[in-house]
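lol so apparently i was supposed to do this last week
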Amino acid sequence: MAMFPCSVGNHRYQGPQQSAYLGAVNGTTSERVKKRLCPEHTASLIDVADQLLEEMDVNAPPSGSGLSPTRFCFRCKAEGNSWALFINIYPLKQEPRVWFGSACATDINEFLGVMGLVP
Ligand SMILES: [Zn+2]
Ligand SMILES: [Zn+2]
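anyway here it is w/ zinc ion bound
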């Protein structure tokens, strides 16, 4: 039995708690949030991450291209964006999964809204 309610909807649940970190960074400005998630909402956050961002291969060699986040805005595909986005998910008994992306000044608000960083 999890000790804390799920961060999505604050509902109680059976089963193991999993955690995720979401963030957006723009120079010295950063927005980060930690979420405690039930198994169901962990799965739905993975779906969202797959749709919006690019998953990094955590097993790729350090010199590989797997470490380069995409330069294109996740929504409008504009190039040269100032916001770097990330989602880290820690599924139970599995390797952490990491997604990266970027956003333009307009679409950052969309990302923050999706991630529940702003009301
Ligand atoms: Zn939940
Ligand atoms: Zn954009």
